[in-house]
Amino acid sequence: MGEGLQNGVQVTTDTSSNPTGTPIIGTAGGFDLIDYSEMMARLMAEHPTLSRHFIEAIAVREHEAMLGAMLLAVPAALEDGVREQLVRSDAGEVAA
What we know:
The chain is α+β, with helices and mostly antiparallel strands. It has helices spanning 36-46, 52-67, 77-90, and strands spanning 3-6, 9-12, 26-28, 31-33. It has one domain. The chain has three helices and four strands; from the N terminus they run ββββααα. The protein has a two-stranded antiparallel ribbon. Strand 1 and strand 2 (9-12) form a beta hairpin. The longest helix has 16 residues, at 52-67.
């Protein structure tokens, strides 16, 4: 089991507390986090007759049912992108 704090998110590879055996990559807001692309690969393999689009639509609906629009964790690079847009806004540019 590997553990550490990355960007304020506790990161671990401990799967013992996860009933599906899915590797937990961190926690945020009291929720265990898993890798989205790995989740999609598993679900697509389990349901090969369903399209990726259909499975993703269900994932989005389930996410919204659990959390609404609240973001718990995002890629670290997102902060840089947001900061760039804010600097443009401070300079009087309109954010697209």
